[in-house]
Fold:
Amino acid sequence: MISEELKKSLAERVAGAITPREATVDVMKELQAHYGWLTDEAVGEAASLLGLSPLQVEELATFYEMIYRRPVGKKVIHVCDSISCWCADCDGIIAHLKKRLGVELGGTTADGMYTLLPCACMGRCGDSPAMSVGGTPYGHLTPHLVDEILEKERRA
Amino acid sequence: MPKLIIDDIPVEVPPGTSVLEAARSVGITIPHFCYHPALAIAAACRLCAVKLLDGPVKGIQMSCSLPAQDGMVVSTTDPDALKMRSLVIEWLMLNHPHDCPVCDEGGECLLQDFTIAGGHSRRRYVGKKRTFQNQYLGERIHHEMNRCIECYRCVRFYQEYAGGTDFGVTGSAGRVYFGRFAEGALESPFSGNLVDICPTGVFTDKTGRFRARYWDYEFAPAVCQHCSVGCNTSPQNFQRELIKIVARRNDQVNGWFICDRGRFDKEYLNSPQRPRDPEIGGAPGEYRLALEAAANRISEFCLQNGAASLAFVGSGRLSLEGCLVLAELARVVGAPFCYFTESAAAQGSLAAVRLLNEQNAARVRDIEKAECIALFELDLMEEGAMLSLAIRKASLAGAQVFRVGGAREGEKHPLPFRYQEVATVDEVPFEGGSKGVVICGAGGKSPELLSYLASSGAKLVMLQPGPNAFGAALVSLERKGATLSDLVESGQIKAVVCFEADLPPWLLERVEVLACADWKRGGLTEKASVLLPTTTWVESNGTSINYEGRAQRFLRSRPAGLPLKGLDPKYYSSETEAVALHPPRVHRNYIPGGAEREAWRVMADLMLELGGEPVNEPLTGRWGKLRDLDPEGEGVRIYDLVSAQDLS
Ligand code: SF4
Ligand code: SF4
Ligand code: FES
Ligand code: FES
Structure:
């Protein structure tokens, strides 16, 4: 359930869009912030706010990798595995992340802090290998730097 | 008009034609999956590669999304193009399960055809295949996602073309999935078209799975007999059983598609309840004897009561042939005849046929191109579902759609386009009327109301209450038919002889039924002293005239008789022989249960018994022009066959 207040502000956002569909991403992000992930209930709420069917919201929700249709940790790590980062040994970084966090790709740490996801090019090829943690981008990663970032983000 | 050369053949095509379509126009089929003539271009599959040797663009191009331009020199057989196509098909096949032997699409599968045509015949990929969970999509369509090649045809049809919202595409990259938000029956009344449009076996018709292969089927061009739109279909029969119905293209009527009623509502054709053997006083007998008995009853009755107290009754379920011979039969006896049982329904049908002419009767193109459309007091999804897709096209192109008089009671499906509600037709802003269309149901409307609607100057769609009710009304006007309820209420009529007619209970109560010819059972067949079974459209040749006055020919696609599946053990030599699905090993010169005859032939046979002339050709007089109607053509509008005078 979302508050009347949130509902009202989302409805305003939708009303301000030229077509309701283009407001979908904004609505999904707000609902995701509210629930922690985009729950089935949230998909239903988004659909009725947008005048779409739940399936039509799902089409967009599952297309964007920053919309989570399953429960995730407090912060999500998106680690790039596209071509530039691959040249810069993202495989090593990913292996290190898995070991440090004790999870496979797609997994969430036992303390519920981090979820580890691979992602496509983030446009930070110049800083490869790259990742983002809870929305903050990091580049020129080394195993040592990764450890520091994880520590810092855990405390932040 | 762009002129180009394709494989050394000079081609000239209208601007906007794609290279793929230009090639097709000279008989060259370039392999393709995502391209479909009725859908928007997606250029998703990359299979339609050709090489441009000269002209404004050069090199490998996707022919489906490349507009033909002056000076292009195209090769569909260049080694680079061939290589590209064979690699594309190889990658499209990477994840495909190669399960053709257990796939119901096998034999009618575009993926099979174009895999071979594309030059991929040996699998090199040895990795793991991507797999999916299928969804339950209802009792009509089976889902097998692993076979998908991501051409996006299904979702483009379902959402864009048909306006459905509960099926679509989720995920991205290698996880693209075509399905619903959650399992459950597909909601669109056009969902069955997924079966036709998917180039592979992701969607197969659950109502006819695993029964036969394409080459086993008996086909013939047919016309849907569920409503007066008259969509073109191709019934697929196997051993006298209708297994599936698929859409058949007719750009003047239904385009490439049909509605789910036309596709799935078919059990009555195979039903064991269908009358197969003639009955005299409830006891089965030979057809010849039944005809004799019927003729005797008719003669006796006329002797005692006079021919004027007997009526021959048909309906909009009869073919045009049946309607015409019915009038002849009644003439032989000197009795009145009717195609309509109740005056309210009759009035509307007859008035519509009088009002419509070549100029004002809207064609489906007129609907698609209309700027302003008024839906007048009708349940469109029930009375003519396919027209809603033409209206949707108009609406997406900017037409305004108005609904007059609100929703009808019991509507099952929402309209797949946007519309505004208005209280009266006067509120609809037809400007000049040239691009306006009024759509209403004719049955039960008063002639004054229909004339008023016609006076708007808009083009008209007046849906009829039966697949050939237009034909029945035409013949009724031409041959001066009566309406049964009028005859009964005036006390004139005491008995009826019915041919594929439906009498409401109050009328049935007031008449004796001397004989009844029909392919289904009901109150009439119960009450009839002689029952003469007729064939359905699957076992008949005939002509029906749709709501816009378009005559269309349908052909018999299987012989009359009981389906082999479920055949009574009495037709086998022993109980042990009566095992499922093998024809009896007993020699016969007739088909079990195959005594039924086409309605017009039953009438003709009865005429002979009653001392009339033989009828060898039911389409006589002005209707003779329809004898050569091409069942695979677009049909013809009948307005130049009849004049206003004939119908007055
Ligand atoms: S399900 Fe069929 S129509 Fe839909 S994308 Fe896959 S192959 Fe194409
Ligand atoms: S719209 Fe009418 S004629 Fe066409 S398929 Fe449906 S029921 Fe049959
Ligand atoms: S490839 Fe990793 S950020 Fe571009
Ligand atoms: S048919 Fe041209 S890309 Fe699919």
